[in-house]
């Protein structure tokens, strides 16, 4: 049909249209560009819709994950601060632990947790006491970095005596096993049950005047009926230790001897 003319008979049944076919295809460039712009706009709109749908679906999960991470960071920081503070508190100069370690008193608080501790009392030796070793008298007041083991009668203490021998060897201290007339046989029997290394660490010494081993010479709180170790430090300081056992911690004993 021709433009502007009356519609002629059409057997296809389609509505009548006016069709204009340009002579040059370049005249359609503007329409092609507009079509591509519309396609690009549609693709951008679809990408935005997909992003919004993803964020909307995970809208609760993402904030929860962020909160958990923040809480974990805060908890880790607090634990680090508190543990550091606690460790430093154990080493404060005025703390009870350091005071007990430096003075030798309060052995229970100075020893590591769970370790039994001997009972230690600071005292002084009898001024006129001396011991006899191989026929030679030694005033106990002249001893330094030494240990005097006082063995009572009927003492079933071979294990403790062996432990004290090892302790004296590790501390490089001179150790004497002191006996009097009543305990001479008992001490020699116990000494004979030790091995050669332990015997070399101990020296048998006689308290001929029974001054050192007299019950009246023991300080208050130290019973004369128990095995007692008299610890003489480098500077001459003296401590009496009782309630001894191989299961005890030897830290305080070694420190009392070495000063």
Structure description:
The chain is an alpha/beta fold. Among the domains are: 25-57; 115-258, Glutaredoxin (3-Layer(aba) Sandwich). 42% of the residues lie in helices and 15% in strands. The strands form two sheets. It has a six-stranded mixed beta sheet with strand order 1-8-7-4-5-6. Strands 2-3 form a two-stranded antiparallel sheet.
Short overview:
By secondary structure, this protein is an alpha/beta fold. The chain is built from eight helices and eight strands. Helix content is 42%, strand content 15%.
> Shape, please?
rod-shaped
Strand portion, in percent? 15-25%
Instruction: List the secondary-structure elements in sequence, H or E.
Output: HHHHEEEEHEHHEEEH
**Radius of gyration over alpha carbons?**
49 Å
Number of strands: 8
Mean pLDDT: 79
CATH superfamily of the domain at 115-258: Glutaredoxin
Discrete helix count: 8
Low-confidence stretches: 90-115
- Helix content range: 40-55%
| Helix/strand structural class | alpha/beta
Mind describing the biggest β-sheet?
6 strands, mixed
CATH topology of the domain at 115-258: Glutaredoxin
What is the CATH level 1 assignment of the domain at 115-258? Alpha Beta
Arrangement of strands in the largest sheet: 1-8-7-4-5-6
The second-level CATH architecture of the domain at 115-258 is 3-Layer(aba) Sandwich
Question: Ends: how far apart?
Answer: 126 Å
């Amino acid at each position: 049909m021709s433009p502007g003319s009356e519609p002629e008979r059409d057997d296809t049944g389609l509505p009548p249209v006016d069709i204009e076919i340009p002579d040059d295809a370049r005249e359609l460039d503007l329409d092609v560009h507009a079509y591509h712009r519309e396609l690009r706009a549609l693709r951008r709109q679809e990408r935005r819709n997909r992003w919004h749908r993803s964020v909307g679906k995970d809208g609760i999960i993402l904030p929860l994950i962020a909160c958990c991470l923040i809480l974990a960071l805060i908890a880790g920081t607090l634990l680090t601060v508190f543990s550091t503070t606690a460790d430093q508190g154990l080493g404060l100069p005025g703390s009870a632990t350091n005071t007990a370690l430096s003075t030798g008193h309060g052995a229970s608080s100075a020893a590591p947790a769970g370790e039994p501790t001997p009972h230690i009392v600071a005292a002084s030796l009898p001024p006129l006491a001396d011991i006899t070793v191989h026929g030679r008298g030694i005033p106990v007041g002249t001893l330094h970095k030494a240990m005097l083991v006082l063995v009572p009668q009927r003492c079933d203490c071979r294990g403790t005596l062996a432990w004290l021998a090892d302790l004296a060897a590790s501390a490089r201290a001179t150790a004497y096993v002191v006996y009097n007339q009543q305990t001479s046989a008992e001490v020699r029997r116990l000494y004979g049950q030790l091995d050669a290394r332990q015997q070399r660490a101990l020296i048998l010494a006689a308290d001929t005047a029974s001054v050192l081993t007299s019950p009246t010479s023991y300080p208050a709180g130290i019973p004369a009926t128990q095995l007692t170790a008299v610890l003489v430090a480098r500077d001459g300081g003296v401590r009496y230790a009782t309630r001894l056992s191989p299961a005890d911690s030897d830290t305080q004993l070694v420190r009392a001897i070495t000063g």
